[in-house]
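User: Structure with fe (iii) ion, tokens only please.
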Amino acid sequence: MIPDLYITNIKGLAQVYKNPPQCVSGSAMDEIPSITNAFLAVKNGFIHSFGRMEDLRLQGKEEVINAHDRFVLPAFVDSHTHLVYAGSRETEFVDKIRGLSYAEIASRGGGILNSAKKLRATSAEELLIEAYARAMEVMTTGTGTVEIKSGYGLDPTNELKILRVIKKLEKDLPLKIKATFLGAHAFPENVSREYYIDQIINEMVPAVAEENLATFIDVFCEEGFFNVEESERILEAGKRYGLQPKVHANQLHVSGGVQLGIKTGAISVDHLESIGREEIEALKKSNVVPTLLPGAAFFLNSKMPPARELIEAGLPVAIASDYNPGSSPSGNMQMMLSLACVLLRMTPNEGLNAMTINGAYAMNTPSGVISQGRPADLIITKKIPSLHFMPYSYGTNNIEKVLLDGMVVADNP
Ligand code: NIG
Ligand code: FE
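Assistant:
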């Protein structure tokens, strides 16, 4: 079998595994298994082989990308976004700078309800155009696989509209996408709490499952939003239809969201700005991936999630962008890496593990590692002195090419 493509003279090939673990935890997060002066071969969209340049014999007819002075690593896996939304909310951004809290903005009809109003007034076609641009943008900045949530529709018609747009994005783009149904993102205006919960459980969940529109179900378990008991009923309803839970947990308060995620068998619990010893001890006894969203903590200028304590407790931390119009209007994972390092005090290696192999674990995809037989979803950097230069030179796009299934999908000058 002759490979379709060789990447040669790679300064450092990062995240190489013969037998990749599902995730890396604790002190192992500070290691990136790498080969210097390496090659990588791709066949039929999968990683065929890799090794040291001195062991490679080419005949001269092969298709080759020369990655001299460049690093190759797995494309980023962003396991938490809300990138299908309508319009923007920079007015609230200014209100926040002037001192209003996230909760205060939400209680004045801003926040998620503001985005829901905009989304309901936007056609599926327009929504697709907006979301397509964001998806292209994240792909060119290094994301290969992304999770996208609904949650700005807040009624059956509009929640399904978002999920169908996500399906369409998946069809139209090489970007790999998994969808999450987040009907329980906020309570819509003009209906009672019970009415809306009933609508989620008895109308939306069955419709989402019927059209096979989502893999996961999520809830915003938070004071002022969905309480633990309501969240549990919704997640259990999703599970009956084959949707796996994820939880927006402990962002603003000690909400019980982490314990709820563990109890319902969630694949991840996300945010975690407000957790303590109790939550960390509970996570240690579970397989739930603690997922941190440094973009949201940065943008809201909030308390930081305790990344160091989680890692020192031996847990596998994932990092995602939370790309959304209210709390993190960026899906740039290179920026998230810098924020994870500077604000969460994660090392560059820990950050890179958190957004490759561990991100993949948090959304159950085979990308995120360099290993034989895995999808050839790859980043080729620009000429940079080391991989640590990437988070160091924050705000710079250090990525030259992105390959998905072995095809170049982004080529930055
Ligand atoms: O993950 N916290 C809930 N959802 C989003 C914010 C949504 C919004 O403000 O539009 C988040 O931060
Ligand atoms: Fe979120």
